[in-house]
Amino acid sequence: MLQKKFCEDGPCRAAVRSVILGAMADYLVSVRTTVLSVVFLAARTLAACSEDNGCFLSRSEAGDLNLTSAPLIGTPKALPLATELNLRNLRSGQLPVSGLGDGGSFTEVVQEEDQSLSRLLVAIVTGEMRQCVLVLVFDSSFEGSGSLKQLVALPNPKQLVKVAGPVDFEKVLWSSFSCRGYVFLLSDVTPLLTFADFGDYAWDYDGRYLIIGSSKSELQALSSTKKGRKTESLAGVVKYPQRGVWGIYCNQIVWAEGVQRLTTWQGSKFTTTTPLYPDLLNDLHGTSLTVVTFPWEPSVIYKESKKDGTQVRYGRDIGVVETLAKVMNFTLTYTEPPEGELWGNKLEDGSWTGLFGFLERGDADIGVGNTFVSNVNGRLDVVEFSSPYDADVSCFLGTRPPPLPRWQRILYPFQLSTWVAFLVGLLLSGPVLCFLARVWDVRNEEHSSFKSLLNASLYTLGLHLREPQAYLPSRRSTQVFVSFLWMYTIIIITGYCSNLTAFLTVARQPPSIDTVKQLYASGLNVAGLGYFFGKALQLSSNQYLRGLAERYEVHTRYEDIWTEVRRGTAVNLESRKTLQYLVTTQLTSRGVTPMRIIKECFSPHEIGVTVQRGSPLRRKFDTWVLRMVEAGLIEHWFLDSLRIAKKDAMENQKNDNTKTGDGKEDTTEGEEVEQVAVAGVRSRSINLDHMQGIFFVLFLGYVASGLIFAGEVVMGRKHAGGDPGFD
Questions:
Q1: Considering only CA atoms, which of 100, 77, 76, 75 is closest in space to residue 90?
Q2: CB–CB of 501/521 below 8 Å?
Q3: pLDDT tens digit sequence for 506-534
Q4: Do residues 594 and 601 make contact, with C-beta atoms less than 8 angstroms apart?
């Protein structure tokens, strides 16, 4: 009709026919060129496509066809080229070609692979992430794909994030209180690799990850990044050359590098029933983990072996890590921070020294040494802590004031108010007895000795001293008075004598510092190792503790602290159990110590195993640490450490002591100190040093009687005219 309408004559129709035939010829040439290009490229790269490699067809941004090869795992030796198509590259190219061998049209291949991938993703999510919040991260190549649509249609709560570069991954919500699954559909995983190798933040180390669109080598690169090597539940899907066949790989984290194949997806099912997110930490296959620690009694104690002279470690914290090594099947390699660094301090550039520095840099996997579960100085920015296995408080250690003079011990059974009442009663008893004996004694019934004030006073004094008296009162009034006086003296003297023995054998300490307020008022400095306790004082809500923070002194060696404490110019601030150990094993001689722990403590804290930030070991450690606590192993290791250390200290002290000829320690009576040990007071015989108070009283009696005797001699000479004789 067109020809009839526009070209009525023959030449015109011939021209139109020529144009149409020319266009058809050009189209056929174009199609032939396209097919030949594919065949040429296939032939050119066929040598690179070995039995372990697949050939991937794609179109570049300029429209050129590319045929490349990449490693494939588990592929058969002979595969049709049409089945060796990488879905990631096909989706980005959208190649509208056909006739690619016996596998069918290009569009059919793409649709079939997309459907197979969709079934795979739905199977993984419904089987492994059914109760999880889904985070779907995709790029432009997967936008609008059937795989993404199938995932969006699932009932899980979800977040969708489209990414084009590493910065876009910061849009992801990387934390959740419940299970969280992360599915990455990426045609290019390079941005993800860049993001995963930058810092430890913005990542959910407890989440479950599934990577789509990567090769095995790219999965291995992801598992080697800073975040990837600490992520236990990391799986990836790799396309195999066969249609509808995909390989599933998982991370190996601690006990091996790279990834390992778990199972294969063929068409619509897995070839095995292997869990896609296995527990990789139940058995670490003897992997060597590095533990950074340092001597810190009683948590970590170093001792030289008597058998071969090698250095062995024991203590509460060593017991914890060695038990973890046994139940999780890994070996321990110990290392130490440089001398004086201990736990470490935060530097101006944000990095850390000491134990925390080793964990921050990745030089160690585990850190122990009485580490407090705390965020002081920003510790949680570089490390994480396991569940606590012990608790403690921060206390002050100071010098014990010298005991009161021994001669005062006879006064200790009564307080001052009791002594005043006792003396008043003693002074009044004699005059009252004399008064009752004299008044209304018209018949002269009462003994004459009671009518003398001096004799009556001596009589009542004898009753107070339990001394039997030769005379008894005769009158009713004096008899009643003396009867009550007997009861009074029996009770009060019995109470005095029952306490006297204890006070004679045990030294009495003068009033000492027991509260933080008293410590602040004393003006003493506070000495501690590192900056931790200084920060704890500054952050306290107690005004006196904040005041002590201004007098806090930082030290790196305990010997320097002890020098100041013994001098009486400072107190040591440390955890209570550490101070108890030091007092028991190193600051005690023959059962007595010059040091004491101030009663009022502050800042209760918990103690746990320290690991790298994001370390997968923490979750498994939590489980086993709680079992150790429930079994009572923590307290057992602590008490065992005290027992061994105390035994070693006694042996060392015994070897260092000067020996006499018979092998006994050379001690004098003045060196017989009070045997106040940790377990209690040991019974000792009462020696002259204990009884010096009563001999002091006897000496005063000699002096007083001598003075009175001298006075009597003088007065007698005056009355006798100088005759020194006595009647």
A1: 100
A2: no
A3: 766 677 888 999 999 999 999 998 888 88
A4: no
